[in-house]
Predict the 3D structure of the following.
Amino acid sequence: MQWQEPRVACLSEIREAYRSGKAISQDFRFQSAAVYAFAFPSLGLIKVGISNDVDARLVQIEKQENATGELVWSAPGNRQFEMKLHRLFRPWRVRGEWFSDCAAIREHLTSLTRAGAR
């Protein structure tokens, strides 16, 4: 059997995996990553995401949104943990990975910190 280059998932497969909470083929990008929550008070929003460099990611998003943000929570994690938080915070979703900055989300993030992140 000849070696074959691994097949890269197409966009529709990635979207379906994201919606169903399955592993996404690009997870290897985040092997030593952190899941984070950034608050943007002027926007009234919290962004939940994953990055290998949380500080650099905050700077990048601040430039994109033209707003000042702050790290309110982070923990070592993978894409599945990030997606778990997205599903948990679904009632407060504004768009994509952005959620209303509300007491319920902040309380849950605080409880994750007390519970050791998972």
Notes: The first strand starts at residue 34 and ends at 40. The chain has a mean pLDDT of 84. The helical segments are 11-20, 54-65, 79-88, 103-114.
